[in-house]
Amino acid sequence: MKRLTFRMHLLTMAASIFLLLPAAAQQSGLRITEQAAANSFPLVASGGLANLLTDSTDASVVQIAAKAFCNDIALLTGKQPVLQHGKASKYTVIVGTIGHNKWIDALVASKRLNVTAVQGKWECFTITTLQHPFPGTARALIIAGSDARGTAFGIFELSKQLGVQPFYWWADVTPTRKKALYISEGSYTSSPPAVQYRGIFLNDEDWGLQPWTAKTFETETGDIGPKTYAKIFELLLRLKANLIWPAMHEVTKPFFTIPGNVQMAEDYSIVIGTSHAEPMLRTNTREWHSNTMGPFNYVTNKPAVYQYWKERVKESKGLNAMYSMGMRGVHDSKMEGVKDAKEAVPLLQQIVQDQRQLLSTYIHKNVTSIPQVFTAYKEVLEIYDNGLQLPDDITIVWPDDNYGYIQRLSNAAEQQRSGGSGVYYHASYWGRPHDYLWLSSQHPALIREEMMKAYQHGATKLWILNVGDIKPLEYNIEMFLDMAYQTKPFTQSSYVQQHLQQWLASNLSHQYAAQMSRIMWQYYQLAFERKPEFMGWSQTEPTTKTSATAYNHFYYVDEAAKRIHLYEQLQKAVQQLQPKFALHRADAFYQLMYYPVMCAALMNKKWLYQHKASLYQQQQRWSATHYAAKANAAYDSIALLTRHYNTTMSGGKWHHMMSMQPRNLPVFLPTPVLPEIAKPTQAWQLAIEAADSIHRNQLPAFDDIFQQQYFIDVYLCQPQTINWQATASANWIQLSHTKGTLNANTGHNEQRIEVSINWAKASLQKSNAGSIRIAANGITQTIQLEARRLRKSLPEGFHGFVPNNGLLVMHAAGFTQEKKHKQQQWQPVQGLGYSGKGMQVLTSNNIDSIPPTAAARLSYTFYQTDNRPATLHVFTLPTHPVSNRHSVRYAIQIDDGPLQITDTKTVGRSEAWKQNVLANRTVRQWPLGQLSAGVHTLHIYAIDPGVILDEIRINWGGLPSAYSLLPQTKVAE
After folding, report:
1. Which of 233, 289, 562, 763 lies 20 to 30 Å from 227 when distance is taken between CA atoms?
2. Chain centroid to CA 165
3. Which residues of 54-156 form beta strands (DSSP E)?
């Protein structure tokens, strides 16, 4: 039988045989098998079942986790252990917290059990087997926690290794049945979590979590109540998390007002916090009533606001709570009563002082012992940067910009604060420039890069993830919390793909894990280039109409068609996999892979086909209606898939959870109706790649370096049948099709001819002219072309970049030379950027001390064929300054020319920032003047840390800009 190791290790997990757990493990380990071995502990054996023993005086969370463990064993084997508080039996699992479990404490006192490695530490545990620990007990399995949550984590870690995944209930990951369960002799000791407080924020729950729980899961409450929170808190414990920011939109009753919610959090030992807009554990959207309480204004209505906070603080005494400090508007809006950030500083300082007085009076005299956070979200960051002074023990929480890019982190001085710092991060968002509430589209590589950057800058106190409705963000949630618990494996950017594959193996199938991980990685990569929710090229707040895509239909071998093709490959892959899950984890596969992949593909098809239909109609193509129909069909398919998710999948368990059109934004609606096509003057026509009004009958040049392929479309303009024939002027011109029939009745309205050059047959002349004649219905059209031999004109041994028809493309990681600095380096980031391997600036200390000319640099050698002016375009990720001591600068230099410094920092919610986050790109351009023919070198110098270089283009007036990544124009070695 397969074996899963129980040894904790930091770097890797073997997907099939050994599953290595994260943390600094002891030398010995525990292994789980289905067959007995010498001195192994029989948790479930053919002849019996171990019992589970807890101390009745131990914390509620320990009892809850122990009961859940018994249920897990029943799911795995069909046999359920007995949970007892009495005496040990022959084979006993003893679960408890050091100092709160008489059996564990007795073993510690007798020195049979060594817990010094975890005792007194935060949320740690040890798991060990013992022979004859007590009279009448042959063997015991001990799970001892340093505190109550540590004990629960130990219990659920064992469950996970036995085969019950954290999302077993939330994603219907049915455990694989086991005949028996034996645990080998040995021990394991965890290390403290990397981040102290780790949790999720339930947000924008209007279209999923709230209607699902109110109408399907917890109808007796009609809202997100204790039954729902019990499931959420169990999930958090299984993910080794400890913090919740409860749902807080107007559609949901406030957490504290629903009976049982607070007690459920206490029972599960989950810390209750509130978001950046909810100070003092108050949910303003439904707890502040301006008609009776007046304005939420500390300048004009301080007594009422103070009393409002005082009531909740008194109510929360004795709770495991974390208090958000400061003040904003009622619901995620600016603070009332001040004109600007500078005026807000003294008022906000007074507010924090008054709030701390409340905490000191009603919670604990030593206010520094009470967890407090200040989230510098949106305009609050501006207030902070205008000189706001916070007490040293308050944790500063740095937010991202809602699209995955952290706005700033602690500088050297701020890293010394006793309260430390944390991060509030989004994997789901409602707001401008556009929501992404529907699918999971935040790239794991970006999450890793930004959060590890935060960790390296001291953000170790708190990590909180905005998860929307929890579903369908299952993987992002687990990855984020895994990283918060143990960051070390994630220091290597390549680990993310490995982690994804391991997760898919554990939750779906070890057999198909590699294939599934490739599918999902491509899914995230395509979404990074443009999220499905952004494919309408519309915006919100204010909401705009959908508009034309930036993907080009007539250049780069049809950029839009290539994207459609990539999605069709993903669709085909998941459709082929789906039958393999028919008997096991079918519902898990549907929600974790099938639905997101299929719907992302269909959303792209809907808008790309709609735009293609619009453009083709302008060309009087009869196929325009065909593409319009395909766009409509994609919308209908999304509706069918969503209906299955809600009503059929898992027997209707998730009814009302999935909405295909959150907020009814234009991108989610059916595509616009295509106007009636104008009556054409002829039966057929041609469209050629890169055609415009000047070169309507001229294909772009071919050359022997890149050996290009271009297309010619023969298409119907009227509902007729035509026979066409294509003839090349020379045998070195290759056509994918030389004849065919277009028939409107059969739907074959167009034919794409791919044109390439057979260089073995072409003459050795530097330039070869040719043509292609296409004839049908007595009409002939001629397309001109030119094939150039350029390779011999390159300098001998040249292996750099050369332009392709006036456009040169270099990927960041394709540099030809690198100059390093001992305090600074360009480091590759695997999986990040359009290119899939960005280059990031890292520094060991203040970069301001390094002159730009001495800084680390990347160099790219290229060859220019003739004397022409050019424009340089450099694409980076839209990161923000690492701290307020930096910006987002780098410098460029051509050969030994002057250094030109640029700064990609954006201010507030500017138009530049909006376009950057929608595209996950920032572009800067420079006119390069008249570059002489010959070899040149582009140098890119590091200045500020955090800059991530992705792609570079130099354009000599050739093809227009492309939205997607273009292939490198590099001469192969």
Report:
1. 289
2. 21
3. 83-84, 91-97, 125-131, 139-145
Rounded CA-CA distance 733/29 in Å is 66
Q: At what angle do helices 302-315 and 341-362 cross, to 10 degrees?
A: 40
Place of tokens 């490959």: 569
Model confidence at 908, pLDDT cuts 50, 70, 90, reads confident
Closest alpha carbon to 61 in 96, 94, 105, 110: 96
Count of CB atoms within 10 A of residue 7's CB?
A: 18
Number of neighbours of residue 57 by Cβ within 10 angstroms: 12
- The CATH class of the 794-955 domain is mainly beta
Question: What tokens does 145 get?
Answer: 């926690």
**Tokens (6 digits) for 922:** 């920032």
Confidence of residue 7 (pLDDT cuts 50, 70, 90): very low
What class has domain 528-650? Answer: mainly alpha
Q: How far apart are CA 933 and CA 931, in angstroms?
A: 7
- Measured CA to CA in angstroms, residue 321 lies from 312, 525, 706 at distances of 12, 38, 63
Question: Which sign does the torsion angle of CA 525, 567, 954, 549 carry?
Answer: negative
DSSP readout, 460-526?
-SEEEEEEETSTT-HHHHHHHHHHHH--GGGGSTTHHHHHHHHHHHHHT-STTHHHHHHHHHHHHHH
Residues 243, 322: contact at Cβ < 8 Å? yes
Residue 214 DSSP symbol: I
d(CA 633, CA 627): 10
Cα gap 127→557, rounded to integer Å = 59
Helix (H) or strand (E) run with residue 352 in it: helix 341-362
> Does this chain's domain 4-189 share its CATH topology with 528-650?
no
| Cβ-contact 363, 370 below 8 angstroms | yes
Q: Is the pTM of this model over 0.90?
A: yes
- Encoded tokens for 405: 């890019």
Residue 339, phi then psi, degrees to nearest 5: -85, -35
Cis peptide before 542 (omega within 30 of 0): yes
Q: Which residues lie closer than 8 Å to 54 by C-beta, 6 or more apart?
A: 62, 63, 66, 83, 84, 85, 94, 95, 96, 101
Residue with tokens 């999923």: 208
Amino acid 181: pLDDT: 97
DSSP secondary structure of 403-458: SS-B-----TTGGG-TT-EEEEEESSB-SSS--B-SS--S-HHHHHHHHHHHHHTT
Q: What is each CA distance from 76 to 32, 103, 958, in whole angstroms?
A: 13, 27, 63
Q: Rounded to whole angstroms, how far apart are CA atoms 94 and 43?
A: 12
The count of C-alpha atoms lying within 13 angstroms of the C-alpha of 476, restricted to the half-sphere facing its C-beta, is 27
Mean pLDDT of 677-705: 83
CATH number corresponding to 684-792 = 2.60.40.10
What pLDDT, in 10s, does the model give residues 308-321? Answer: 999 999 999 999 99
Cα–Cα–Cα angle for 356, 360, 362, nearest 5°? 115
Whole-angstrom distance, CA of residue 511 vs CA of residue 533: 32
pLDDT of residue 960: 79
Question: What homologous superfamily is domain 4-189 in, according to CATH?
Answer: Chitobiase/beta-hexosaminidase domain 2-like (3.30.379.10)
Please spell the DSSP secondary structure of 895-938, one letter per residue.
TTS--EEEE----TT-HHHHHHHHHT-EEEEEEEEEEPSEEEEE
> For the chain, how many residues are written?
973
Q: Give 948's strand partners.
A: 840
Token pair of 795 as six digits: 């300098």
Question: Among residues 404, 492, 490, which one has the least CA distance to residue 446?
Answer: 404
Closest CA to 318 of 361, 360, 363: 363
Token pair belonging to 548? 């034309």
Domain boundaries, the chain: 4-189, 528-650, 684-792, 794-955
Q: 200 exposed, middle or buried (CB, 10 Å; 0-12, 13-18, 19+)?
A: buried
